Amino acid sequence: MYKILTKEMLSPAICRMKVLAPRVASAARPGQFLIVRPDEHGERIPLTISDYDAEEGSVTIVTQKIGASTKEICALEAGGYFEDVVGPLGLPSDFVEKTDEELSGERYIFIAGGVGTAPVYPQVKYLKSRGVHVDVIIGAKTADLIIYRKEMESVCDNLFICTDDGSEGFKGMVTGLLEKIVTEDGRKYTQAVAIGPMIMMKFATLTAKKLGLPITVSLNTLMVDGTGMCGACRVTVAGKTRFACVEGPEFNGYDVDFDEAMRRQGMYRSEELEADHKCRIR
Amino acid sequence: MANRIPRVPVREQAPEVRATNFDEVCYGYNEEEAVLEASRCLHCKNPRCVSACPVSVKIPEFISAVASRDFGKAASVIAEDSSLPAVCGRVCPQETQCEGSCILGVKGEPVAIGKLERFVADWNRANGRKAPDRISPNGHKVAVVGSGPAGLACAYDLAKAGYEVTVFEALHKPGGVLEYGIPEFRLPKEKVVAAEIADVKALGVKIETNVVVGRTVTVDSLLSEEGFSAVFIGSGAGLPRFMNIPGENLNGVFSANEFLTRNNLMDAYRDDYLTPVMHAKKVVVVGGGNVAMDAARTALRLGGDVTIVYRRTEKELPARREEVHHAKEEGVKFMMLSNPVEITGDEKGWVNRIRCIRMELGEPDESGRRSPVPVPDSEFEIEADSVIMALGTSPNPLIARTTAGLETNRRGCVVADDDGVTTRPGVFAGGDAVTGAATVILAMGAGRKAAAAIDRYVKGLE
Asked: Is the ipTM of this complex over 0.90?
């Protein structure tokens, strides 16, 4: 059992929890994820790690209510417990392995969409601690849904915000804003990283390609075990089948078959709807 | 004469009934049946069954205790050599091991050793069994990676020798393949697996779940930071293989591992568990091993019309004979000498057909089996809304990649000798992690040998 130390709602549909999981906290690196199981009857749900504190033995996770299981997670309260927390899983971001020399002169631009903003935070924090220039774009439907603004401001060099409805910052998509700050404002970057909905990462990759910018994406595929056993997470990268759980979750965006990844992500959608609303007619 | 008695048949759920539920297929012997069957044993002077058993259970001795109705004694005889008798009695390939060498099998039916072992283990569980005695600790700590058959057998023997053993399990429940791989209808989880694991824990073995060695901790950190004198790697062969044919990433194509893990570990077949599983209407399972049979029979129970596609003939099926027989009885269809070449999908990316080619048997390959060769221009299509790939598995590279000095071969298996000694001092390995996918009992045998080698190694350090 893994105790929930704190819980807060970042928006009506997004909650943040700090969970006591000392082994995960001391091994976690930026870019990795974990799997939780809310209770004995629950699914194993992969979630990105939004922060970790080895000293306190805690990891921070951010969950958006989407299906039955994520709703169950968000219904848990501080003082309560997760049945299981396992991780860290996946490979750390590749900049973790780079030397200071390799990182010097690098200029990163992160493109964060929706709940994907949370896992961007530890990456930005880490890169800043290594002295790298980091700018961040956060995109959301509307101003109320922007999360991690303060946290991000405290660790990045420049924060750019865009909303679909123009309620804050640039009116439009992250792709439009990325294009604007590079071509109109003349900002220079050596590497982009996009984390968010699959469709956003697909179009962020297309824009980055147009701008000649290398881009890394973090794939939130379906998973069961998260250790390479089931293959539910398989994605086609550069024409080859790869397992996102052990060979990812981060891949070179140029190489990812996003259309296949989106199709596979929806594989249990009808079953999920059923789980939400138990059909008795069948 | 003893061998005039025909082999006592075992009672089973009727095929048409069990095809719609997940309850155990086989009911096992009752006392009368077990005693009668036990009376068939000839008590050979040189029992070939014992040497054919990977853990050398003293078979004639326990059978003679059954014949004289001393079931408790039969249980202690088995316990000397096996930590998981209720499991082995159910899933061992007896026809190629103990029963395959039974002298009665030459002219008639061998003694039903597996069914007798199962009877004894189940009887022992139901009738005031006593927990094994705790041994006084010898002051040494050993880490075991993986709580499947190899790890449990190793932990059991080490605990009996006084070691403080911690087993690290990556999943949330212990048991390894017994938990995620073998279905409930063949190996009940609560009644059998959990109970046998409880016996291992009763010896003082600690099991820590949710620890992925290679990610959460490493073999090196266990040795250098957590005070373990030795590490046993029994991490199994959990990586699924695919065919690398077009269409394999279509929706509705699963590895048998995924399909079975959803059903077994995650209980997806039950309404009160949240994990989803596809209830396909027309299922093709590719492969001919036990895993293929398990996947096929699970898909059938979820309401599917199931066909197994296998590239050789029935004679070469690597599955236990009983599983093939049960699958057929339940209505699984077999399409032999066929091999998939492509999976095709509809406009939404879901499987709709699988294209196969006819095969014929050619020259024997290195395994001694005649290798299948495609028949030119013989392609045909089968309708399917789900395809399950049961082509075998290979060891997970996670541990080898994160352990300095641990050699693996080109198939990704940890290099270890017969005693489980690896290229890294203090690190031992056994079971599927070393051999590639094999059987529960071979893994247990390897775990036991490694336990003995670990004991020698740790004592040598003193």
From this structure: yes
